[in-house]
Amino acid sequence: MKLGVNIDHIAVLREARKINDPDPVHALGIAQRAGSDQITIHLREDRRHINDYDASRIVELSPLPVNMECSIDPQILDIVCSLRPHRATLVPEKRQEVTTEGGLDVISNFEAIAQAVQKLQEYEIDVSLFVDPDFEIIAASADTGADMVELHTGEYANLYAMLYTNLPHTPHAIKELGLSRQELKERLSKALGDLENSAIYAAQAGLFVAAGHGLNYQNVGRIAAMPNIIELNIGQSIIARSVWVGLKAAIKEMKGLIDEACRCD
Ligand code: PXP
Known about the structure:
- There is one protein chain.
- With 265 residues, the chain is an alpha/beta fold.
- The protein has a single domain (2-264), classed as TIM Barrel (Alpha-Beta Barrel), CATH 3.20.20.70.
- The chain contains twelve helices and eight strands.
- The protein has an eight-stranded parallel beta barrel with strand order 1-2-3-4-5-6-7-8, surrounded by eight helices.
- It is globular and about 50 Å long.
- Bound molecules: pyridoxine-5'-phosphate.
């Protein structure tokens, strides 16, 4: 199981002061030495964290393959094509969101997404689509010609947080549903089932399967244990943990949990 470490939040900290420190480029060697398999960054349209200068230096200097998350905005796609990272992961983007909120609607936006996939592939960039665990969306994803899907684990992570943590920032969307503990447990088990079945379905459709969003040191095991998932992309929890133990230890710890859960190393 591969681990892609999303380093956007290093740039979030830098942007809080609008200065040059911390520089996400400094994470590249540390991530490699800690056992990360990939660097993931998101070049957002609003450039709220990673900017064009970061992206070009990261692609140029990274000793690990770089997975660039991006929208299908034509200007962003032009930048990604000119940088030629190892992979582009297409994600939906809304200006007001705190983080990517849902998967791509590959059915309603099929033509635009298929064109983006084709354009990126012409530049020899592998393409992944960030999607909800839904058979119809995955079938449409395969039809676009994409190489891979990344299954959105956000709902699973939110339900897990509601059930097993007792902190003020419990996810609003789920909190507002006012579900009982038993109902939350049923939803959690359905979310896991949807992810597992979607991973099987996607693999049978010839897609490589990644997963990510909201994964942390508590909830990662159940996802890492799913046999058809070959890669996890994790950001927030690793960067948060690195405040206490340093980036290298935070990545090693996560990699250890993933290896333990999927019994591979
Ligand atoms: N995968 C995708 C497609 C994402 O958009 C993000 C968030 O940038 C992640 C994974 C990582 O999510 P988190 O920061 O919650 O680990």
